[in-house]
Design brief:
The structure holds 3 protein chains of 3 kinds.
Chain A: E1 10-17, H1 28-43, E2 52-56, H2 65-71, E3 78-81, H3 87-100, E4 106-113, H4 139-144, H5 146-154, H6 158-176, H7 190-194, E5 198-200, E6 203-204, E7 214-222, H8 223-226
Parallel strand pairs in A: 2-3, 2-4
Antiparallel strand pairs in A: 1-7, 4-7, 5-6
Helix pairs in contact in A: 1-2
Chain B: E1 3-10, E2 14-17, H1 19-25, E3 33-36, H2 43-54, E4 63-67, H3 79-85, E5 94-96, H4 101-113, E6 118-124, H5 133-137, E7 141-148, E8 154-163, E9 169-170, E10 179-180, H6 183-205, E11 212-218, H7 222-229, H8 252-263, E12 269-275, E13 278-286, H9 288-292, H10 300-305, E14 308-309, H11 312-318, H12 337-342, H13 344-347, E15 351-355, E16 361-362, E17 378-382, E18 387-396, E19 406-413, E20 418-422, E21 436-447, E22 450-459
Parallel strand pairs in B: 2-14, 4-5, 4-6, 11-12
Antiparallel strand pairs in B: 1-7, 1-8, 2-3, 6-7, 8-13, 9-10, 12-13, 15-16, 15-17, 18-19, 18-21, 19-20, 21-22
Helix pairs in contact in B: 2-3, 6-7
Chain C: E1 3-8, H1 25-38, H2 43-46, E2 47-51, H3 57-66, H4 75-80, H5 97-101, H6 105-120, E3 139-148, E4 151-160
Parallel strand pairs in C: 2-3
Antiparallel strand pairs in C: 1-4, 3-4
The chains are: A alpha/beta, B alpha+beta, C alpha+beta.
């Protein structure tokens, strides 16, 4: 089995990223347009300059039309990809291979999700008709099962596990507080994290990722072409 | 010789303390406890549990009959779901008996007088309006009896019936409330019918009342059971379990018969009298084989002494009397009939696949082995009787469940195989790594009128 | 772009008793592939920042081991010691991670890359710019997963200037 990679053959020449938050006033289309326009500006390009598009959305819509319509792309190859929660990375990966192959000179990967229109907490999968024997647990519950197994295997007691997990949340909230695009921009104390209401197993509400809408995009080209492409600094 | 060859009983894990009822609704209740079927149980699943125990001795039924007054489906047969869970052969017919208590004793009579090995299962969930006598005095249970010709533990030596149309109780299909007429009318009528059938049954058995060591009387109420039973003149009247279990409707005849067998000695004459829209009396003589027969799982008495309390509020929500706010998550979709039909062996029978070369057990069954090397080189591996241990676990407080939170574990089975599976009959703080568990057939949820049957794991208890 | 690796698990963790729920094998395999693509031999020292899929706190803890940042069974100590803090030895989720950003499924992977892009170009706001990362040869890693323990997909990307 080979996995050669494409080291140093592709460069990112522009990026865009919306705020991630509960965008009650923005649709999936709005978020896609905002991220794309930031990205075009960052790369100093127009939508017509970009040869091909990859849209990553898990449940935001089917097919490339989900991006071609809001951006009004004219005659462009637009592909929608989905690969669970790694969908955004997958869009970039496909775009990179297409450009590295020489099929296109430039491509955009854009990831977008409108999560907060469901009325429910958390992510909700579209059920495929099934025999009813599959699990219906939340992701929090599935991941929470790692904690007792890890503690048990490495002899880390429950309190220490609790501290270590809280430290992750504490750190990431500290960092998020320094980021204007983040959904939560407040530091949270260890005590608050540890005493937060339990969602699943030992995972409290502060052990779980937030639930937000957002979009981000990148434009890529072959590395040897990157120097000749004008770039402007991001905000 | 034809008679009973095996039996099994099932009492659900939860108990409602009758004293709690009046505290909440200001009326009803009484002394003692009643059994309560889990939110994830229905008569079909309970019948499976009792039947699994009855079949542990290796009985291989050629006919399956199922009785309940609360069938999960109308129009569609319920016995077929139990048939699938029990992995009875395609050539074994499975029939529902009509939705009345008397159908249950009808099943026993048909089996006793029929041919081949007949499995009769009866199960019921009894309730009524909050604060009613039916709610307090009812109970939930299942029992299964196998009739056949080989290895008989109790031979049927006589039987008789007295049939009469009168309205002592009634319930319209789809309603939860059973209404009753004047108790004295029922008692007077059943006393007359009971004596009539009793005398005829004794005659057919060629014995006297005093020859009968013990009689069990299944009746709509303990009062009627005692009033009629005391007039039979048998050696003893069996406790009808009203203090701990309650009146279990269609399950009562087979449940009392199981209890009778568990208390009888070899060579005794014992009798079952069922008072329901008439009277039916079955007289048995136990054989030497009874003494050597181990109980099929726990005895009725052992199960009646076990269990764990359930708050009355939870009971009311489980029975749909009160509606509790569910987690704010989407409800599951209804089961796909075609997908369920394709997966019948897995969904109902809990049959995994076993890689013939590596021996690895695949749950659910797969065509390609987990090592990726072989296709269609598996054999069926029944797993429903396997036991396992909890490897890790969680309590999901957010996911949809008819009774949150979900207690869930990854279970590794003794002898191979792993499945992440929901636990039942357990409180959230009881689960721990290493806990031994066994499998039980349950109803995960009902959507669009379709019960979603599958298996859960429960702690192995005493 | 130094590496793009993706692996889809076969779901065997939920059916095979060999899996013990203390690691995500798909991610360990994906990281190994990514490091080979990028020529990284000592990730704990060569990677200067990482954006990882902290869908839950326990996930980030285990990821530190699967990505080769901490030896097995020790990530909990490294987290408590502040090794992955913004001013630590190997800053993880300098932008705040899924924890602070929420997780709009399709966008998260590109959001992670966006932070790597800002940091490598020295364009992150001063209060969270990692010192010494905006130079030739510095490497940033993004890790994005989907699915559940025992049955997941994993992406690892490595980016540099």
């Amino acid at each position: 089995m080979a996995s050669h990679g494409i080291k140093d053959r592709i460069a990112i020449i522009g990026m865009g990223c919306t705020n991630f938050t509960e965008h009650w006033d923005k649709s999936l289309d709005d978020l896609a347009v905002d991220a794309a326009n930031q990205c075009f500006e960052s790369a100093g390009m127009t939508k017509d300059d970009v040869d091909a598009y990859w849209l990553g959305t898990a449940q935001g819509g089917m097919s490339g039309v989900t991006l071609a319509r809001p951006l009004q792309l004219q005659g462009k190859p637009v592909t929608r990809v989905e690969n669970y929660c790694a969908t955004g990375s997958e869009a970039l990966r496909q775009a990179c291979y297409a450009v590295a192959s020489g099929a296109y000179d430039t491509a955009m990967a854009l990831g977008v999700e409108k999560v907060k229109d469901s009325g429910f907490q958390g992510l909700n999968a579209h059920p495929v008709p099934n025999d009813g024997t599959g699990r219906t647990l939340t992701a929090a519950a599935m991941f929470s099962m790692v904690a007792p197994a890890y503690g048990n295997r490495y002899g880390v007691d429950k309190d220490t596990m609790r501290q270590a997990m809280a430290r992750v949340a504490w750190k990431n909230h500290q960092n998020g507080a320094k980021n204007s695009r983040a959904q939560f921009r407040k530091a949270v104390s260890m005590e608050t994290i540890i005493n937060s209401p339990k969602m699943a197993g030992d995972l409290g509400i502060f052990d779980c990722a937030g639930v937000a809408d957002g979009a981000a995009a990148a434009i890529i080209c072959r590395a040897e072409d990157a120097q000749s492409t004008p770039t402007s600094p991001c905000s | 010789m034809r008679g009973i060859t095996s039996w099994g009983s099932y009492l659900p894990y939860r108990r409602l303390n009758r004293g709690e009822i009046a505290k909440l609704v200001g009326q009803g209740g009484g002394k003692g406890t009643r059994t309560v079927a889990g939110f994830d149980e229905d008569p079909t699943t309970m019948a499976v549990e009792a039947s699994r125990r009855a079949l542990q001795g290796g009985a291989d039924p050629t006919l399956f009959l199922f009785a309940t007054t609360n069938p999960a489906y109308a129009d569609k047969t319920n016995a077929t779901a139990a048939h699938a869970a029990l992995r009875l052969g395609d050539d074994v017919p499975a029939f529902d008996l009509g939705a009345s208590t008397r159908s249950a004793v009808g099943g026993l009579l048909l089996a006793a007088r029929g041919s081949g090995d007949v499995l009769v299962a009866a199960a019921d969930i009894r309730g009524g309006l909050a604060g009613s006598a039916e709610e307090a005095m009812g109970g939930d249970a299942a029992a299964a009896i196998v009739f056949g010709s080989g290895d008989v533990v109790a031979e049927l030596i006589g039987s008789a019936s007295a049939t009469h149309e009168f309205i002592d109780r009634w319930r319209a299909p789809g309603e939860s409330r059973t209404k009753v007429w004047d108790d004295k009318f029922a008692e007077t009528t059943y006393t007359k019918l009971g004596r009539q059938a009793w005398a005829a049954a004794l005659k057919s058995a060629g014995c006297q009342a005093t020859d009968v060591a013990m009689v069990a009387v299944a009746a709509p109420s303990t009062r009627i059971a005692n009033a009629v039973g005391s007039k039979f003149g048998a050696g003893a009247v069996l406790d009808d379990l009203s203090a701990t279990v309650g009146q279990t409707g269609a399950a009562q005849p087979a449940l009392l018969l199981a209890s009778l067998l568990e208390q009888a000695q070899s060579g005794q004459i014992i009798a079952l009298a069922v008072l329901a829209d008439g009277a039916d009396v079955l007289i048995f003589k136990t054989t030497e084989a009874l003494a050597s027969r181990d109980g099929r799982g726990l005895t009725v008495a052992e199960q009646a002494a076990g269990g764990a309390p359930l708050p009355y509020g939870k009971y009311l929500s489980w029975r749909g009397t009160i509606t509790v706010e569910p987690p704010r998550r989407p409800e599951p979709a209804r089961v796909s009939a075609t997908a369920a039909a394709r997966g019948e062996d897995w969904k109902f029978g809990f049959v995994a696949s076993r890689d013939q070369q590596s021996g690895q057990i695949h749950m659910p069954p797969q065509r390609v082995s987990a090592d990726g090397l072989r296709t269609d080189a598996m054999e069926p591996q029944p797993m429903s009787e396997a036991r396992g241990k909890v490897i890790t676990y969680t309590i999901d407080r957010m996911a949809y469940s008819p009774s949150p939170p979900i207690v869930f574990a990854v279970v590794d089975f003794d002898g191979g195989g792993r499945l992440p599976i929901e636990l039942c009959d357990i409180d959230a703080d009881e689960v721990e790594i290493g806990m031994p568990v066994e499998l039980t057939f349950r109803r995960l949820f009902v959507q669009d009128g379709i019960p979603n049957y599958f298996w859960k794991a429960r702690p192995v208890r005493g | 772009m130094k590496a793009l690796s993706f692996i889809a698990g076969n779901g065997s963790g939920v059916t095979d008793p060999a899996y013990d729920y203390t690691t995500f094998p798909e991610i360990a395999a994906c990281a190994k592939d990514a490091y080979e693509q990028a020529g990284v031999t000592d990730p704990a020292n060569q990677i200067k920042m990482a954006e990882v899929h902290d869908c839950f706190t326990i996930t980030e803890l285990v990821l530190m081991e699967d990505l080769g940042f901490s030896p097995r069974g020790t990530a909990w100590k490294d987290e408590l010691d502040g090794r992955f803090d913004l001013d630590g030895e190997l800053p993880v989720n300098p932008d705040g991670g899924l924890k602070s950003f929420g997780h709009p499924t399709g966008a998260s992977g590109l959001r992670m890359i966006y932070e790597a892009w800002l940091q490598l170009r020295g364009e992150a706001p001063a209060e969270r710019q990692i010192p010494g990362i905006d130079h030739e040869g510095a490497l940033a890693l993004t890790h994005n997963l989907g699915g559940y323990p025992g049955e997941m997909v994993s992406f690892v990307g490595i980016f540099g200037r």
